[in-house]
Structures
1.
Amino acid sequence: MDKQQKREIITKRIAQELADGDIVNLGIGMPTMVGDYVPEEIDITLQSENGFLGLGPAPEEGKEDKDLGNAGGQPVTIKPGGSFFDSATSFAIIRGGHVDVTVLGALQVDEKGNLANWMIPGKLVPGMGGAMDLVVGAQQVIVASEHTIKGNPKILKECDLPLTAKEEVNLIVTEMGVIEVTDKGLVLKEINPEFTVAEVQEATEAELTISDQLKEMKVE
Amino acid sequence: MDKQQKREIITKRIAQELADGDIVNLGIGMPTMVGDYVPEEIDITLQSENGFLGLGPAPEEGKEDKDLGNAGGQPVTIKPGGSFFDSATSFAIIRGGHVDVTVLGALQVDEKGNLANWMIPGKLVPGMGGAMDLVVGAQQVIVASEHTIKGNPKILKECDLPLTAKEEVNLIVTEMGVIEVTDKGLVLKEINPEFTVAEVQEATEAELTISDQLKEMKVE
Amino acid sequence: MAEIVSIEAALAEIEDGSKVMIGGFMAIGTPENLIDAMVEREIKDLTVIANDTGIPEQGIGKLIANKQIKKMIATHIGLNPETGRQMNEGELEVELIPQGTLVEQIRAAGAGLGGFLTPTGIGTVVEEGKEKIEVDGEEYLLELPMGAEIALVKAWKADKKGNLVYRKSARNFNPPMAMAADLVIVEAEEIVEVGEIDPDQVMTPAAFVDLIIGGEE
Amino acid sequence: MAEIVSIEAALAEIEDGSKVMIGGFMAIGTPENLIDAMVEREIKDLTVIANDTGIPEQGIGKLIANKQIKKMIATHIGLNPETGRQMNEGELEVELIPQGTLVEQIRAAGAGLGGFLTPTGIGTVVEEGKEKIEVDGEEYLLELPMGAEIALVKAWKADKKGNLVYRKSARNFNPPMAMAADLVIVEAEEIVEVGEIDPDQVMTPAAFVDLIIGGEE
């Protein structure tokens, strides 16, 4: 499976988590792809933390609006029924629990639902942007991540990078499966049939409980 | 001097305190009259704590707008250049120090600049409305008050009614004179020539320092 | 995202004993049709959060007159003598809060804040029972968020998704309340199609709104 | 109430070493003409508060490239590698703050609050050195207000009194910053007559605005 295939599996599976009417914030990078796979009959609204609801796709070339971009500064559009607001209101929406689902990438995530995704000391210090508020505020926090990085597990017993938030992650979706964060640790709920349970556990530092109702992870 | 004459002297004198460009909030009752006496060449903007800047006079009869009232719920108008906002923004303006002057009535005011104007326990409990925020937030707090009530002083050594705010009053204007609240107590800066200094002091429970530059209180 | 419902369906969500915040300021910008329906249905023992209790026959004054409120949380009740009478007779509990504090408490609830520090009320009875915190040599009161089960909001226009626009001074407490309740019910004077409200002019985004009842009777 | 001035007159108010907040988000809604003028005048040793440092040749990126900033307070600097380079070399001090916290700190300064309690940052390095306060069994960080000497704000339209309207996602940090500085300087794309902006559509009331420079070059 190449990187692109992994990302497709992950984001397609996450798209299934979204329900009609949901307000969703998608992080920069892979999470953005989730938006492409939402079934047509499901009407979700994307929140953009720089200040609007109703984030639409990139405009045709030449139709960019200098005053309309996503949180990465890239030109986007707004869908009918969207609204603009200032950053204080944007984070009132986010921190106040009015975002139903946020999907973010991870450097590390652990069995308590701790997430590290904003810095590697001495190496990469981009800043947390809106991630800390999103992870604390959203009703449901879904991590979209490849299962390992350079062969090393990203799903750990305990994160050792600086945290983005403590015990806030609800669901981890990787190319290997779907893992729920529970009071009793990580529960493998779905598995990609290309892998065995043993393989998934081996690629995971934290101990996985295997769900009684372990299902096949289906995309498309 | 009858009540009406007193109120006219007080509010005309306070109108002289306002400077071009000032944002001003006038309390319900006598303070409202201050707006009528602002010289034409002085452009002030009235803030209405229920949510707008640019408070204008009452509309002609029949031209009332059900959606436009002052903080007492009475029909008013808005002047060109005014703006509407919600109550949270209104009190961001007030508490944040963006109102230059507020003029309020008093039940009692004392030599430390304490003000009591929102309740008489067991008798009158209307609520503080926006007064506590206004007195704390406005740059300049001016009390508009008759000097005495039923022959008893209202300017006391120490208020005994529940306070509206502690040590926030800057200026007290009565029909007898203009009194500044300073670190060293109350300073009589202007006196209405119809009274003697002795008479003013006698009508005042707190001790007055008489300004070296005591001036005649002039209206019109 | 909102749903357009009948006034009966909206009212079915409000039970005896509910905690309800109601927009408006001296009966300007108050959802009068929702209040009339509450009076008709005789919903009782309410805790109501609002700026004021209106005047006797208008706005929240109607709920006061009909004795449907057990506890009133407001900033000012002076223009409705019946509220004072019920309070003095012990029929109605009244909690008075400075206006800037009340609206900020409501906003804090909607914005996911655990509280805020305000200078308002220092040295007055308002500070009783509250934590005082000093910041940079200044004393502040720690005020806590105030949410409710239900918010009744009056809008001028709502689109079918729930984006709201208010008109003139009828805005007042409505936008912060629309953020701060589990269920937000909007009475709109006019319901328009999605797309008819310029996204730059939306005052309450649809994300906050649950139910809309529409059209003036 | 605002005054319309030349860009030179506006810039005269900004000194070496000033603390300046600058609106915009990834160079959308940033007052580029004011920044260009700051670059030209070589105003140095600035403390800048902004969401980000733009990209190398846009927005605040220009001030970074020209090494005019001594301390940067921002939420994200990842899209401008030069900021990271200067930080790593010790040429630039960078303080990183969660976005929702930064904007709320700015709002608190403008709104006269002494601080607020947020759940954001609990259990992370953000909590270091901050007071923790428990409310209803939940832990919060006490975050303090953040004002500045000067705010540079980008508006779409300003009327001659200083009422502002922003356009689309260029609004972002501009309205809260317009509340939070001793001197608020607005770069407006268009300056219109008083009365041309509907009072219901004003996004920043004139009470907050001091100086306006206008018209795109």
2.
Amino acid sequence: MSAHADGAAHAEHHTHYTTTGLDNRKIAIWAFIGSECMLFASLIATYLIYKGKSLVGPYPHTEYIDAAGKVFKPILDIPVTSASTFVLLASSFAMVLALQAVQLKGVPLPSGAGWWTRAQRSSQLWLAVTAALGTTFLGFQAYEFTAFVNEGLTIKTNLFGSTFFTLTGFHGAHVTVGVLWLMSLLWVDRTRGLAGPGDELLVDITALYWHFVDVVWIAIFTLVYLIQ
Amino acid sequence: MAHESAHVDKHAAHAHPNGATYLKIFVILTLITVVEVWAYYIPALVASPLFNPSLIIMSAVKFAIVVMFYMHLKYDHKIFKMLFSGPLVIAMATIVALLFLFRQLSF
Amino acid sequence: MSMLRLRKAAPALLAAVALLTLNACSGMESAPNSTFNHTTDLNTSIDGLWDLLLLWGTIVFVVVEVALIFTIYRFRKRPGGAPAKQIHGNVALEITWTVIPAVILVLIAVPTVKTIFQTQAPAPAGALTIEVTGHQWWWEFHYPEYGVTTANEVYIPVGRTANFVLRTKDVLHSFWVPQMGGKRDLITNRTNTLWFTPRVDLGTNAWNGFCTEYCGSSHANMKFRLFTVQPDEFASWAAHQARPALPHDTATSTAAPAVPPVTVASASATMPVPAMQAPEASAAGYVFPAANLPEHVIPQTPIPASLKFDDALLAQGDAKRGETSFMMGGCIGCHAISGNPMAMSNVGPNLTHFASRHTLGGGLFRNDDTTLARWIKNARAMKPGALMLVVGIGEYSPDLKGPVTAGLTDAQIADVVAYLRSLK
Amino acid sequence: MASIAHPTTAAHASAENENTGIWSWITTVDHKRIGTLYLWTALFFFLVGGFEATLIRTQLMKPNMGFVSAETYNQLFTMHGTTMVFLAVMPLSAAFFNYLIPLQIGARDVAFPRLNAFSYWVYLLGGIFITLPILFQVAPDGGWFGYAPLTTPRFSTGPNIDFWVLGLQILGISSLAAAFNFITTIVNLRAPGMSLMRMPMFTWMSFVVQFLIILAFPPITVALFFLLMDRFFGTNFYAIAAGADPLLWQHLFWVFGHPEVYILILPAFGLVSEVLPTFSKKPLFGYNVMVYSGIMIGFLGFGVWAHHMFAVGMGAVADSIFSLMTMLIAIPTGVKIFNWIATMWSGEVRFTVPMKFAIALIAMFTIGGISGVMHSSPPADLQQTDTYFVVAHFHYVLFGGSIMGIFAGIYFYYPKMTGRHLNETQGNWHFWLNFIGMNLTFFPMHFSGLMGMSRRIYTYDAGQGFDLFNMMATYGTYLLVVATAIFVWNFVRSHKHGEIAGNDPWGGATLEWSIPSPPPEYNFAQIPEVTSRYPLWDLKDPKMTAGIDHSHADAKVITDTHAVPVHEETQRHTAKELGIPMPLPTAKPLFVAFSMVVMFCGLLFLRIDMFAVALTVMLGGAAAMIAGLYLWLTSPLE
Ligand code: HEA
Ligand code: HEA
Ligand code: CUA
Ligand SMILES: [Cu+2]
């Protein structure tokens, strides 16, 4: 993130020679994403290692009856999570359109372009949509967490609770950062308008981060929610 | 230099799929997700030994599609391919190794 | 001139190495915990592997160092010396020194893998199972076969495979008797095993055991003794240990020193360590004779001089009174003594046949009256972090953050000592 | 990314030349000054770690010693290991990354100069954070790999481990930020013609290390985060009562831990790979193989971690696999050893102090490597693990390897960094005392280990056969104290009184020797176009490099990049005079680093149930950090 920092101040200096002709910030963000792979690998591995090792419930996929005879039904709520998964996928779609919109700035619209073609040209629209969908996802997660807590699963309850909340929480934190990042971009777009190679790059690296957070969720959704 | 890097970008922009393709990809991703969730609700499938593997394959496909097209790695400089695939391989290998070590997977 | 220095230093270094090697190999005396024995099937196969590693290691070492020293000597810059040849590489050579190490490694790898599977196979049938439980900072040994539970001293018969089933009550520990073979960790929420068969001709002997996984303040003080004994001796020992504690009206024991006093080798302020006391093997049960204990298994841990006890009182110690104090003093809160229905707790070491042990406090001290009295009075002062409560009246207790008020007087402690002495 | 710009670009003056006061150090973003800061700080921590070691050795000099208490001892060895690994050797390497990489690849700075300053300040503050507690006897005491469950709140109630968890977390951020920075720098800021396979070997090894860092630190970050959650928020990751598996920590730690040891050695390998050719007047033997073996070592390093766990009962199959993987690493490492020797073969070997240290690395590291291979055989390791034999192994590789290599680097590059030589005579004393001292200290440990002495024991009983070896080790340490003291004296004094060194005091082959010593703020007045692996030898002694392929200067590149053929730069100007845009000095990175550390400190109050305080401190820190970040992001670099 700070990586993107020095670069940002750099948008104006596009005359810098680089060995590869690529922008430093883009190399840094890819290195960062590579590193993130290992971060989530560790989190996911831990979740799977402790899968089925909890001494007490609630459990993700199976019912649990405690000493007092209280019944805890399987805690994962697949329908809700499927919805939030869809929302995140959609946000990725919006994100690519946002990047495309910035890249097509200045390219004249073909005559008689339909609403869809015209809509595709609005970077502000798609940045806003992406951020909104991201926020919706966070909303789902907030709902899910509170629901679990009400059903008796906290981060302290058992191994499942600790690993589940930490893994998904880590991902949620990444989404939150992404949303803030998108909003600051949107703000820049509104104030001075995003255009030109410098800004394309700004949006591009944001998109890379955002899509990565999305693919991580694709993995989590399958490994945590679906497989048993 | 300016023109060149700019040129690189533009070039990339053209190589990129356009909105329509993005939409197609989005539809595919959604469909796979639907299949996954649908399978989850068919006890017979869940019971079968192929359930987990096939789900993992499906998500892997989604993963790959997003990375190649939405993250346009397919069209981008090879240095990025290395920066991503290298760590990804090590990360995957580490997960698998750990699962074997903790007997969550076995031969 | 620097070459001169190198030439001077090299022999010095070699001399040091030689000296060390000499010392290391000069047998049991100087190396009572050596890992190079062939006392069991386990350490025999390990040592075979070690010899292989040492051989190839030495060869590689010599080759590299000789090549290095020769090169820098032969090609040192000197007036009239040949100018540097501008060689950039040589594929043939590089392949050579890739392949040769690879071959060496294969020669090491094959027997390694063999040994791994051989030593980690399940213990042979008829093995003697001993359940080992690690505690901060002492060892519990349980013989399911004989219903025996003891602490810090474990007996095994020669010729029969001993299969140690390793668990821990708290943090990680590691079970190691260097002279018997490799170590195994005790892992919380897991069970490990380690087995070996003491050679039949090993004779009756005593060995040091250590905890080798860092486990907190007294990691260094978590020791135990392993006794390899003859099958009949073992049978006798086990049968006796399985029995409840003997009635304690027998006279309290103050036996004569069995081994000459050892003077303390230490810089810290300490009182001289008194002589080893012979636990009286009661007619019934075999106990490893104190007289035969090798020097190096006899603890020499100094007792802090600051810890005062009126040893004169020990003579008047009365076992019966001691039993009462044992219960009043809160000892039963942690310690079990079968035969004493009040003492059931298994938080601390089981004391049923305490008097038949040679050491106390996690193998840290000799089990004699003067030490025992001080241990009871203030174990924390004698063993860092020890979890045993301070019971001596007036002693500082970390738990109370002040002096103990409701505890035992020196006289009462003397009684308790007498009581414990009666637990043959 | 203050790399090459048109001289026509409006020139911003950098404050450097006019101002060398303390403030200029606090606000500097110059990779050379940051490198210098790293060097001094890391040397200080080396002394701290060494001092702790000296206390350890004094306590172990004789059986049943009462020099320090058990609790103090446990803090001492924990902090000794932690300090040496995270606060001494890694930052010493970082000092060279910072100082050398841009110079060796012909760049004017790193890709993200302010991020670079940030890394340093986080390191400094993190180091202070984790070191201070020892003065109050509440230092971390769980060992440098802090095995659970001993570190969980149930068995460690004090604040000791809290400092460790947070401290390492902070230091990790520093290393990661730096790694992204250097990866970008090496990929993107190489001078024209400086293809990857022309990079100096030090830059190459550093490049590999940066990847080890970005892949090895996430696992420990996660492992530490779990512990942090357990200690501050009552989660169950390592809570044995909840059925947690202590091996989780061990695996996550060593997935980091083993690559970490190569993070510690590869920069040293890189440094000696610069020193040996220079003083043999020969190019490095088998450059390509040296590169590949470095990559190989780094890659294999991710597949061997469980060799630290042969005693935990992983099962025969796992033991075998990790054993074989471990042995494999001996091969690429061996190639390096032999190629170094071959580099000196048929050369003109000059025994300067740096050369002596470099040769010592070859000699000593080999010993450590061989004992490593002895560990790699699980049954044998069952007799060795957690004994002094392991302590001997890793000190031979760490002290005989990393430290020797780093000293070689310091003596070699001191003239470049300061413009003055270190005193040769004192240097020789330092070397010989160090060489003899380290062998006297660590060689006996092989024996005490195999004779049954476990590690991490604050005392041992008499008559166990350990006495002689420990006595020797302790005296050896005292020699090392003397040696180090001589070095410290030499290092400080030569700054003013050392004899003047020119651009190229040793006859080096790479770009850093083509510019004045110390280099001007802008490094290169004109970026050179590189046409071979040994640009300076091309210039000064072409027949030396006749044997390797060259590319002739490409007119187009030259016009595009305003590069010029490799040349020596003799006179120094200011960036202003040359119209070279330099990054502006700024204190923002320090501010962000500081508020981040404050944020972490907030957590400490949770353990003493001061929720209000904790919350305010944490939120305050976070707010300040974000504000600082915002200012940072929105202010121009140049
Ligand atoms: C600089 C750091 C460094 C380096 C480079 C190494 C290098 C190696 N290490 Fe070491 N190691 C540590 C630092 C390092 N280690 C530390 C700190 C610990 C202890 C952590 C702790 O517990 O606190 C440790 C512990 C450790 C263990 C665990 C021991 C135990 O706890 O039981 C093992 C086990 O396999 C091991 C193996 C190796 C091997 C095989 C290498 C190989 O890379 C060595 C390869 C080099 C050579 C072999 C020499 C040159 C080669 C030749 C001349 C070719 C011919 C040679 C042969 C054919 C043998 N190391
Ligand atoms: C690069 C890493 C590194 C380095 C350089 C060293 C250097 C030294 N180490 Fe150690 N060490 C470790 C890494 C390192 N160590 C690690 C990781 C552990 C494991 C910790 C654990 O188990 O958790 C360990 C453990 C360890 C132990 C085992 C402790 C135990 O298990 O109980 C011992 C015991 O002798 C020891 C000794 C030494 C000594 C004598 C030095 C000497 O070489 C030190 C030389 C330096 C000096 C002597 C400095 C001298 C300067 C001064 C004293 C100040 C003087 C003041 C001025 C001049 C101003 N180290
Ligand atoms: Cu128990 Cu160390
Ligand atoms: Cu290792």
